[in-house]
């Protein structure tokens, strides 16, 4: 499902990742952790082709990410849902429009978009907020909308980059619970977090980075 083969990433002579080799099987739940600057976000950005490796291979769902041309990137991203720490919702679109935006971009017909948007909003418990603006939602609700958006196109992989970084403890556990439910449905989930309490709650496999190197890889 995901393979990193001796991957390094260097920014202006400063290594962000150093010779990382990692395999994630289909259906795994993997928590990537480490202190700030360890390389967690860089690793996830490589997986959805926001950036390219300086050296090594990155394979995601059978696609060699490092060899993809820009015209081929959408085919990769259709297989991946991404959840960000800062939500990245469109402020001038309603909750439902934020979720359906990606489906419109993929060319889904209007009726199918409406049905899928309703279903994922029901699943995250926000169907009653479908017509509201993101600014009227709490931080936890905004992150649930972001998760609904990530799930809208039925991705095989979900990447969550510090999704609870702006939330309190209770809301953080709610978001973690949603990610665990996503995993229980068969989706591969890679969660990046520096929060030790979330690591304990998440279960599954833990990959620890430090100074861009793979320090530990263990079952929780």
Describe the structure in your own words.
The protein has 220 residues and is of the alpha/beta class. It has two domains: 2-79 and 155-218, 3-Layer(aba) Sandwich (Rossmann fold); 94-154. 34% of the residues lie in helices and 28% in strands. It has seven helices and ten strands. The chain has helices at residues 40-47, 73-77, 95-105, 110-123, 139-151, 169-184, 196-202, and strands at 2-11, 14-24, 29-33, 55-60, 63-64, 80-84, 157-161, 188-192, 205-210, 213-219. The protein has a six-stranded mixed beta sheet with strand order 6-7-8-3-9-10, with helices on both faces. It has a four-stranded antiparallel beta sheet with strand order 2-1-4-5, with helices on one face. Helix 4 packs across helix 5 (139-151). The longest helix has 16 residues, at 169-184. The model has no long low-confidence stretch (mean pLDDT 94).
Write the layout of secondary structure elements.
Blueprint: E1 2-11, E2 14-24, E3 29-33, H1 40-47, E4 55-60, E5 63-64, H2 73-77, E6 80-84, H3 95-105, H4 110-123, H5 139-151, E7 157-161, H6 169-184, E8 188-192, H7 196-202, E9 205-210, E10 213-219
Parallel strand pairs: 3-8, 3-9, 6-7, 7-8
Antiparallel strand pairs: 1-2, 1-4, 4-5, 9-10
Any key phrases for this structure?
220 residues, alpha/beta, Rossmann fold, 6-stranded mixed beta sheet
